[in-house]
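Bug #77: duplicate submission created two jobs. Keeping one. Sequence:
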Amino acid sequence: MTIAILGGTGPQGQGLALRFARAGVPVALGSRDAARAAQIVDELKAKLPDGAAEITGLGNDAAVDAADELVILAVPWSGHNKTLQAIKDRLTGKILIDIVVPLSENDPKKVDMPPEGSATEAAQAILGPDIPVIGALHNVSAHTLNTLDWDINCDVLVCGNSLDARKKVIDLVRKLGVEAYNAGDAQSARCIEAITPILIRINISKAVPFSHAGIRIWAPDH
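Kept job's structure:
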């Protein structure tokens, strides 16, 4: 099962490509610049252990076409809508996993939500009701993803209007060795995406003795 990661040359896209390839999931790494994607793939392969799945560097259109079903959108918020409009016609029969957080242009410790309420809902509005959009992986540190010696130190909240698509994304995320939870329909993305700037604020605080923190869902002790 090949997945596509668009925006794969950015830090979060690269980290996800490494993690999924190490978990045995082939990755089509997409970029507006196919040559740049191929260059990044050469660098990523050098970091992977023997036996990892293949990563291929492609342009965005070719990466979407190479995906069996699941396409991860990991572009900056500034390119979110434009990227979706460009690939919309190629997403028929596929599921879009939107990991983008609409961080404020002037302050990454704040969100600047679009009129739809969240990036996930904006994506669904652009793609229409027949292409499932699932929000996930918003709150995972890119630095953690790229440091393969570290475990991913958080759970993943998954939301979207299609229950069947949510279940498929949860199964995919669990391949990374983390727990994923069904967080409900797309409106839940308003809360989930807003967690990221809070984590950024905590992680850069001089009063906090750690960085790259994530969130976990804890069971009660009783």
